[in-house]
Design goal:
2 copies of one chain form a homodimer. With 209 residues, the first copy, chain A, is an alpha/beta fold. Helix content of chain A is 44%, strand content 18%.
Chain lengths: 209, 209
């Protein structure tokens, strides 16, 4: 059973994992929460809590925790060994980049198909992954055994596509359209709003806040 | 002078703007904070505060605020009419997608060049934007009048690239590498960590939290 962690905690886990892998490669064997905190610019108290939530490994005095099993604990918590099949809906520039990106499979996400309405894309492969017409979604979704859709369509059609996906049985939507999606209760939406992030960057640059 | 808003507030502004533009296109003329709140799944109190932070327009009873000037206020707050030049550092799949993406220019970001180390990319154009070798960064950065770098390199080289960018005078880094960057005090970093977002989605799907 998964222990209870907050969204903010969870968002830090890939950062830890990434850093731990890096220093393991560099030959480190142990890490203390204070070293980890300093390296990642986080408060030590926070790091200690995060590590306790993920791992039962106890640290040794003056050394800290062993890195190798800690990496395993993070990977297992993040479910990187449980593979989820996913589809890309909207094969524009971002959708295509994701089809070509190899890193998702290391993170438990296996992209099995793309969907679009553009005849110049439908029927072709990108990175050996087939692109189907969106009209075939309903037929293919069970066959493809998919639970996650990555939504990379323009914002004007995002809600409409989301409705189609939910009707077809999709349980999780990773939404890159800058739109608030209304979905039924048992569907999970996680938003990546690049416009919002860019707004924060610009504002910080203006005000240095 | 920019009024003080929180990061969370700011992140909502592009969402409002997007929705307001959409309903304006559909022929709407006025919007109340309660309608806006319902449409975007936000609390009305929050929406009211956000609107007050951005706009001096007063709402009319039973109608709400006029949409057209409200859109202008959001755009002006977000600085979408002040253009910042930016470079892409790391022309992999994501970097290339960004070079091809037309939407940044509507949000005040003008991508003027890409930088990479790969001979198969350097010297070519993507979407009419030239790709230079990273060694030329120092020479070109003043000439290009750039303040923002979009960092789309693998995480192992992100810190090294970030150091080079900061030394060259970059003031803001939009970081897509899942790495915590250490930068000097006057440099602003905004992170988009796709691995973190994916972790949240997977965890929500497992636990329905």
């Amino acid at each position: 059973m998964l222990p209870n962690v907050s969204k903010r905690q969870l968002e830090r886990f890939p950062l830890y994992l990434n850093y731990l892998k890096q220093i393991k490669k560099e030959g480190e064997v142990y890490i203390s929460s204070s070293t980890l905190a300093k390296a990642l610019g986080l408060k030590e108290e926070k790091v200690r809590k995060d590590l306790q939530a993920v791992s039962r490994i106890k640290g040794k005095p003056h050394l800290g925790r062993e890195i190798k099993p800690l990496i395993k604990d993070f990977e297992s918590f993040l479910g990187y060994s449980d593979i989820n099949n996913a589809i890309i809906v909207g094969v524009g520039h971002l959708g295509e980049a994701f089809l070509n990106y190899a890193g998702f499979s290391n993170r438990g996400l296996n992209i099995v198909a793309g969907f679009d309405i553009d005849d110049k894309k439908v029927g072709y492969n990108v990175n050996k992954i087939p692109i189907y017409h969106i009209d075939r979604l309903n037929d293919l979704i069970n066959f493809l055994d998919v639970s996650i859709a990555i939504l990379t369509v323009p914002s004007q059609v995002a809600q409409k596509m989301s409705d189609i996906l939910v009707r077809a049985g999709i349980k999780g939507i990773w939404n890159f359209a800058p739109t608030h999606l209304r979905v039924s209760g048992d569907v999970v939406v996680e938003n990546v709003d690049l416009a919002a992030s860019l707004a924060v960057l610009s504002y910080k640059l203006e005000t240095k806040f």
